[in-house]
Amino acid sequence: MQNLKTLVGRSAEINELRALIKVVGPSDATALILGDSGTGKELVARALHDCSERSVEPFIPVNCGAIPRELLESELFGHRKGAFTGAISDRKGRFELASGGTLFLDEIGDMSMDLQVKLLRVLQERIIDPVGTTQGLAIDVRVIAATHKNIEMLIEKGEFREDLYYRLNVMPIEIKALRERTEDIMPLIEHFAVLHAKRRQKPITFAAGSLELFMRYNWPGNVRELSNLVNRYSALYPGQNVDFRNVPESMLPPGIRLLANTEPGELPTAPPVASGQGAFNFEGCADSDGVGIAPLQGGAATPNSEGDPAALFDETVRVISMAQSWDSFPEQGLPLKQHMVDIERSLIQQALDKAEGNVSKTARLLNVQRTTLIEKINKYGLSSV
Question: What is the pTM for the complete model shown?
Answer without folding.
Answer: 0.66
